[in-house]
Amino acid sequence: MELTRITDDNKEFFDDLIPERYLGEGSDASLGVLDEENSPCAAMALAIKSNMLEISWLYTYPDYRAEGAGSLLFDKAMELIEGMGLDGIETTFAADDLAVRDFLTDKQFLIARDRGLYRVPVSDLIYEEDMDRIREASYDSHPVATPTDNNTKNMLIAYMEKLEIPEEVYEGYSEKYSFLLKERDEIGGVILTKEIEDGDLEVLFFHNGLGVGGVMDLCKALADVLDRNEKAGNCLYFSDREGSSSEFVERLTGEDADRYRIDGIDYAVRLFA
């Protein structure tokens, strides 16, 4: 097997192994493995965040896992960061992916529960009976804004700094599908999302400090924009890392959040001495 960097010139050969968002500016390095017949069989994307190397993506075709394709990628990643003074290497993975768990354990990673993942069909949101009442009511107790102008964006940055939320948590948010609640020229709540594959949306961060009225204002703003942009056939993905996302899922849908839970996410880390 042979290692290669994934570049604009060869990325089409790796289409089935790694999503487009992990290539180019989406990562600091993207690596692939070719088998003896020069066919792609594994891919990895790496990013450096907060002095840690993050494995953003790692996938090997099942038939090649016993042949060491994943280890080849991992060893190359370790070689690339040698001497950089990083604190360690980290990644997240589906809690029920036993093959990845075994691989990371073998590479001396420590593994812990990170978060759950929720998938909410947008149709459950915009067509839910309680949401109909919310959208018909005049929930405008707090002005709602989108982060499209520099002043609002600077307010958002200041708000997130106040909450001690690292920028990488919300980088890449969609201006169209993100909303802020304003209270006396300050932000009192946010929902930040970004568009992912197939038109779905991932909720990057949700926080509300303005009570029930604030939650309703955010719910209404999000439901309205999703409806206007014909997103009924898509899904919203939430994680419960921040703890309040499950509450927001229940506010949006009127259902127990566990109904929409699709997976658990585990966190793996290997710290350098």
Break the fold down into its secondary structure elements and pairings:
Blueprint: E1 2-5, E2 29-34, E3 40-49, E4 52-60, H1 69-80, E5 88-94, H2 98-106, E6 110-121, H3 122-126, H4 129-136, E7 144-145, H5 150-162, H6 167-170, E8 179-183, E9 186-195, E10 201-208, H7 211-228, E11 235-239, H8 245-253, E12 261-271
Parallel strand pairs: 4-5, 10-11
Antiparallel strand pairs: 1-2, 2-3, 3-4, 5-12, 6-11, 6-12, 7-8, 8-9, 9-10
Explain this structure to me?
The chain is an alpha+beta fold. The chain folds into two domains: 2-86, 3-Layer(aba) Sandwich (Aminopeptidase); 116-263, Aminopeptidase. Helices cover 29% and strands 33% of the residues. It is built from eight helices and twelve strands. The protein has helices spanning 69-80, 98-106, 122-126, 129-136, 150-162, 167-170, 211-228, 245-253; strands at residues 2-5, 29-34, 40-49, 52-60, 88-94, 110-121, 144-145, 179-183, 186-195, 201-208, 235-239, 261-271. Strands 1-2-3-4-5-12-6-11-10-9-8-7 form a twelve-stranded mixed β-sheet, with helices on both faces. A hairpin with a 2-residue loop joins strand 8 (179-183) and strand 9 (186-195). The protein is elongated and about 65 Å long. The protein starts with a strand and ends with a strand. The model has no long low-confidence stretch (mean pLDDT 84).
